[in-house]
Amino acid sequence: MEYYFLIAAGIITAFLIGSIPSAVWIGRIFYGIDVRTQGSGNAGATNTIRVLGAKAGIPVLLFDIFKGWLAVYLSVYFAPETMSELAMIHFRIALAAVAVLGHVFPVFAGFRGGKGIATLLGVGIALYPQAVLVAIVIFVVVLAITGYVSLGSITASVTFPFVTIIFFNPHSLSLLLLAVMVGIFVPLTHHHNVERLLKGTERKFSFRKRKTPQ
Fold first, then answer.
1. What are phi and psi of 208, to 5 degrees?
2. Which of 25, 87, 152, 199 is the most exposed place for a label (fewest CB within 10 A)?
3. Can you give the pTM of this predicted structure?
């Protein structure tokens, strides 16, 4: 009974951590603005920077990354002592998944959150530290060349499974499958961005906030 109670408690805690809507709270508390009502309408770091500027957006980015990492780290405290190595991997993946889910559907912000990219990055740092470094480099290069955060995120995520398989050979099939799911999940959450990219209407990234939020 205690075994399953610890697992359930860990999963609930990870979801609640993922649900902390840093973009929404920082916008409301310090600027009197709900970032979901302006810009892209997304409660994430990119839109926060676009609407409120880097001074607000960078703390949002760092916190959202941290909560993804922290969710996985909860396994240290909630994993039962009798849990096997394989079960531990599955438990950490479950914690990661519900944290990202919490970011996308935050219970503390009416279930309207962000796309989960920063939180997913934090998860990746915890589970695939070396492969994530390569993904970050890919993201930065694409962003620097094109100016599009969405294209950088999509490119990094789609190449992530290949980087993981070819260069780092994960020791667990579950981790390999998770990497593949990341490569599918991110483009799906960016389908509106893909449409705008194809139409040539996607907004390029800038650290400066918009002068006249709409």
1. -85, 140
2. 199
3. 0.88
